[in-house]
Amino acid sequence: MAKKAKDFNENNSAEEQVSSAETQAGNENTELSEAEILRNELEAVQSQLEEYKNKHLRALAETQTVKHRLQQDIKRAKEQGADKAILAVLPVYDDLKRALEAANADPNSITEGVNKVLDNLRRSFESLGIKESAQVGDKFDPNIHEALTAMPTDDHKKDGTIAQVFESGFTKDDRTVKAAKVVVFQK
């Protein structure tokens, strides 16, 4: 009986050892599974991070491209605007040359030549949408006129109007390009 008890204890001990080994193996499998899960999650996060980095770099490149294109468009628009203004004024240059040639031939013809040049210049300004902003008798407007001095008057109707224009002023599309320098009647 002692032998049976001993065999029983050994069997129990062996079974316990097998059970303990299976538990450890199960724990290791669980640990491996958890490690694999964490490794998979890490790989997914790294992949997503890489995707976000690529999207960010593409967005930066696109932003730089758009910025460069806009700068080129602005430069081109400025050049085209300058060309338009130059082309509108070039005929005046030719007219002045002709007026001087005519004045050399007949000094009395200068007035007529200069008047033609001035008319042509006004037409050129009109083609650009530029308008003269000050005439004698106009109401003084500090937004488009610069008062150089005041001239006394007793006439109530003239008070606050332009008495004399020293330098013409110009507007384009309701925007002052150059303020007119004027003398204003003041009571």
Can you walk me through this structure?
- By secondary structure, this protein is of the alpha+beta class.
- It has a domain at 132-187: Nucleotide Exchange Factor Grpe, Chain A, domain 2.
- The chain is built from 2 helices and 6 strands, in the order H-H-E-E-E-E-E-E.
- A hairpin with a 2-residue loop joins strand 4 and strand 5.
- Helix 1 packs antiparallel against helix 2.
- The chain is elongated.
- It starts with a helix and ends with a strand.
- The relative contact order is 0.07.
- The coarse overall form would be elongated
Q: How many β strands by DSSP?
A: 6
The CATH homologous superfamily name of the domain at 132-187 equals Head domain of nucleotide exchange factor GrpE
Distance between the termini: 142 Å
Residues in helices, as a percent range: 55-70%
> pLDDT average, as an integer?
83
Number of helices, counting only DSSP H or I runs of 4 residues or more: 2
- The CATH class label of the domain at 132-187 is Mainly Beta
- CATH topology label of the domain at 132-187: Nucleotide Exchange Factor Grpe, Chain A, domain 2
Strand order of the largest sheet: 1-4-5
* Gross CATH architecture of the domain at 132-187: Roll
Structural class: alpha+beta
